[in-house]
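Feature request, filed as a ticket because there's no other form

It would be nice if the structure record came with a short human-readable summary line next to the tokens. Right now we just get the raw output. Example of a typical job, pasted below so the devs can see what we mean:
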Amino acid sequence: MAMMTSKKKAAARKRRRLLRKKICRFCADKLTLIDFKDVRRLGNLVTERGKIIPRRISGNCAGHQRQLTTAIKRARHLALMPFTVE
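Raw output as currently delivered:
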């Protein structure tokens, strides 16, 4: 019986690894610059608590994730977006 469960666990691990690679939504839209004034687009990449969603979850490429971070920080500084939720 113990052998059966370890085989099932190994099969489950293999299934989990076969996830489809996420594509960068900014590369797909062919955007070269992320604008800090576009709050609607930036709001989708921030959690309910106000944290920036990491690259491994959002699927953004490294360059666009860096641009996204600076754009969100600029929007927060200009009070277009909240720092935290009250």
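Something like this underneath would help us a lot:
Residues 9 and 15 are 10 Å apart (CA to CA).
Helices lie at 2-17, 25-28, 39-43, 55-58, 62-77.
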